[in-house]
Amino acid sequence: MGKWYSFAKNFRTFALVEVRTIIKKGREKKVWFAIRVTYNRELKVKEDLDARGITNFVPMQYRREERKGVMVKRLVPSVHNLIFVHIEPSKMKEYKMSTDLPIRYIMNRGTDGSRKPITVPDHEMENFIKVAGTYEEKLIYLNPEPGDFAKGERVRIIGGQFAGAEGIFVRVKGDRRVLINVQGLVAIATTYVHPSMIEKITDPEPNRLDNAL
Fold first, then answer.
1. Is residue 16 domain-resident?
2. Is residue 20 part of a domain?
3. What residues pair up with 159 in beta bridges, in sequence order?
4. Which of 137, 170, 178, 210 could disulfide-link 62, Cβ–Cβ 3.0 to 4.6 Å?
5. pTM, full prediction
């Protein structure tokens, strides 16, 4: 009886540990990693990720080029050497080890001096994709500096091809546009947006709210 009880107790403890491990692994959330690709091979990396069924996003847009005297539109990367990958952290490490393609994390230095890979909050990435994913040739990509556009008004676009996107309503190159800044890595400005197509956002920023929870 004592041996059986001890065995049952040990088995239960082992099972609980296994279940907790499985639950813990199951709770590993996918995040958007900002990945640096060297030698302008972002489309090669995208092709490889697509083949593996890994969600990713390369900012692209249509550009007009003259070929043999004829103007043609081509879909090309808007920002070279940058790709966003939506994946669990452990699987991102596995992918980096399994591929021969030239990729590396874009790192961020914390307040304690430690360095860790930059990840983009889901809400911020969704806004970016709503705009960048239109591939509109008149979109403007910018290299933001700390403090840029801090005085702009937070708005939501309520109509048109950018409907639902949230950002800062600012003047860029003479026109009023909505700008989305992605973790200081890249900023994108929409085409001209008429004031009647936007509404002011008064709620706390989702990213800040999430961090407070």
1. no
2. no
3. none
4. 137
5. 0.81
